[in-house]
């Protein structure tokens, strides 16, 4: 029996690789002779670099860059394909997890550090950049990236505006004459797991601003300044991206990127699955086990379990999902996932849930395997 284990991370408790190990331990108690194939996954957010490096040959780099609140941070990224491809996560330099909850402020948070990582990759001579957009602390529509790569965002007096989303209200003109000379030479793929537009009630500020610390008043203000940035950008690019799918990701970061690069936006999970040749890994499998920390209606929006389950179903492979928590409105998931299981034993506080994640996932996997064996015997 070939069993492919392909989960995402269980946020704040287990990496995708650790989740694979727990699931195998639980299953192997019941099916010790099975062939277990690990395929740890990510969908373009935190952990994407680590996941791709586990499946592909590459080299980790570390760079000291500007963090989301203009403080220095040590950010990791990677080179693949003998230095031809750079893997970068916005979360590494401009991520929400770099801040304490009390520090979160999308009015001043900047993507400048992510721009510094991109600049370093360009200086290395890469021909392809893959940027994962999950987990950002920012709402500056990629303005910091533009600034880091030599673009000038000027106010009405011709002076450069400050960094951060709120500063965009003063933007009058954009000068791209001094941007990095290699920007247009690279193949630039933006990996994200949302399709939200740039502005409006389903856009970057309204949907994602509150989790980054924005009050209702600030959300409205940020939506207005991002709209203003888009209007000024239109004079440079001649393309209106206010309602372009995916441009609401990471606080609107694709807008700034589009001023510098010829970007291609792709679902993060599809980029990862293709890079790791997931279809070949799944071939001749008898069962796929996937999962993530919480499965709910958002799982349908390009998250890891849904993406890998679709690939498995196309080959007629049964799919089981394990999640720390099963949320609401997951009925549509059953079109590709045959059964889903939560791991939390009883009502618990978050600290206890996170601390017991390894044991909970292992035990749940063992119980699922035992149920399968009973079914085989009946």
Automatic annotation (TrEMBL):
EC number: 2.7.1.31
Molecular function terms, GO-annotated: glycerate kinase activity
UniProt keyword list: Kinase, Transferase
Protein name: Glycerate 3-kinase
Origin superkingdom: Bacteria
Pfam families referenced in this protein's UniProt entry, alphabetically: Gly_kinase
EC class name: transferase
Protein family: Belongs to the glycerate kinase type-1 family.
Cross-referenced SUPFAM superfamilies: Glycerate kinase I
């Amino acid at each position: 029996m070939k069993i492919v284990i392909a989960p995402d991370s269980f946020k704040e408790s287990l990496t995708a690789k650790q989740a694979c190990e727990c699931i195998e331990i639980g299953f192997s108690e019941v099916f010790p002779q099975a062939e277990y194939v690990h395929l740890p996954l990510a969908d373009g957010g935190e952990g994407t670099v680590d996941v791709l490096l586990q499946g592909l040959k590459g080299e980790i780099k570390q760079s000291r860059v500007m963090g989301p609140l203009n403080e220095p941070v040590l950010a990791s990224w990677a080179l693949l394909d003998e230095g031809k491809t750079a893997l970068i996560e916005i979360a590494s330099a401009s991520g929400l997890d770099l801040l304490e909850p009390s520090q979160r402020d999308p009015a001043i948070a900047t993507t400048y550090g992510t721009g510094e990582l991109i600049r370093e990759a360009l200086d290395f001579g890469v021909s392809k950049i893959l940027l994962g957009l999950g987990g950002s602390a920012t709402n500056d529509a990629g303005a910091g990236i533009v600034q880091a790569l030599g673009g000038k965002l000027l106010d009405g007096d011709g002076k450069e505006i400050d960094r951060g989303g709120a500063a965009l209200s003063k933007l009058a003109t954009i000068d791209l004459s001094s941007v990095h000379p290699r920007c247009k030479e690279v193949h630039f793929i933006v990996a994200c797991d949302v399709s939200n537009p740039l502005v409006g009630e389903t856009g970057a500020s309204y949907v994602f601003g509150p989790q980054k610390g924005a009050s209702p008043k600030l959300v409205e203000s940020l939506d207005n300044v991002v709209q203003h940035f888009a209007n000024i950008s239109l004079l440079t690019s001649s393309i209106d991206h206010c309602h372009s799918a995916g441009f609401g990701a990471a606080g609107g970061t694709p807008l700034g990127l589009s001023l510098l690069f010829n970007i291609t936006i792709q679902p993060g999970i599809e980029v990862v699955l293709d890079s790791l040749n997931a279809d070949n890994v799944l071939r001749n499998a008898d069962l796929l086990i996937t999962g993530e920390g919480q499965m709910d209606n958002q799982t349908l929006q390009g998250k890891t379990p849904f993406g890998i389950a679709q690939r498995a179903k196309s080959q007629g492979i049964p799919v089981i999902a394990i999640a720390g928590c099963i949320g609401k409105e997951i009925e549509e998931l059953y079109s590709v996932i045959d059964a889903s299981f939560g791991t939390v034993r009883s009502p618990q506080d978050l600290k206890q849930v996170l601390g017991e994640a390894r044991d909970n996932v292992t035990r749940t996997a063992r119980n699922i395997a035992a149920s399968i064996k009973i079914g085989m015997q009946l």
